[in-house]
Amino acid sequence: MTAQLKSSLVSAIETAASQAGLVLVSAGAGAGADARSDDRTTTVFQLGMKGVEPGLPGGEGAGKSLRLELTDGFDFDKPNLLPEMAAHLAGEAKRLRNPRPECYVTLGGLPLAYGKFEWPFHRSISGADTYIVHGEIELADGTDHKLHAKLAASVTVTFAEIVPAMEQPYAESFVYNAIRKTVDFGQLEFVKSGNRQPVPVTTRFYSRWQKKFLFTETDDTERLRYLLSKVYWLSGVLGGNQPVWIADGRDAQYLNTTEAELLKMAGHEAGEGLMVLEGEFAAATPALMSRAAEYQAMLDAALDFTKPKFNESMRSGHANM
Length: 321
Fold this sequence. Notes:
alpha+beta, disordered C terminus, disordered N terminus
């Protein structure tokens, strides 16, 4: 990294990353003010696992790095910001051990790859009283269909007041989960090309009484189905049967449960021979992979649910006006 970027922010990231078991690989200038809707500039950090050089083959975390983009001059060394930054980096350190750290699964059974996010949030240039962050999701089922959705996730200025900072470590989890929930609603279409689609992150996803995000009320059956689907796609199909992190707090938030409960359920399925559990990580077994037709059918149904439907009665002039 250049001497100019060796700032207090870079030093603070180095320290926080080290405490999470990560190492700062590089730091460089992010989007300039001319590429954004405001006058801020950013720094992009690449973080890797300690003792593992990104880009080289090897064990867990090899060849993978975490991209972290922060506003220049952002100071997170404060009592209300430092703990959440530490928790974010600790979680990312475990996700880097996944074969595909950028991938998540929806309740409906769609494996998604998240990418091209342009952090942090910026104020809308349309005149709306909102903050916006752009990104993309791609259907990641191991084929080359290139089905994806370009996104514009938005929060109101009022809603932003509950977020410690409109920066990536403090917003990524609830934005990613709002995207999954919007897919669950059938409100994002997967196409080969197209314009950005809105993802409104509203107060319907937050309980002011409980002071936490609430996306989906799930029961044991739904959580079990989710875990098996996650291990099938992320370990079995995309990961070459490498283990994936089960006790992911981002999944716990999405399902409105706890990391401990997810681990407990995974332990039960390991006993049934559907996954191999080691600590907080689980890998698919041949017994689980033998259910390929079941998971493909779930994917097809969930993908079909996202496609716009034409009302045939309107074609015949029978619309109820």
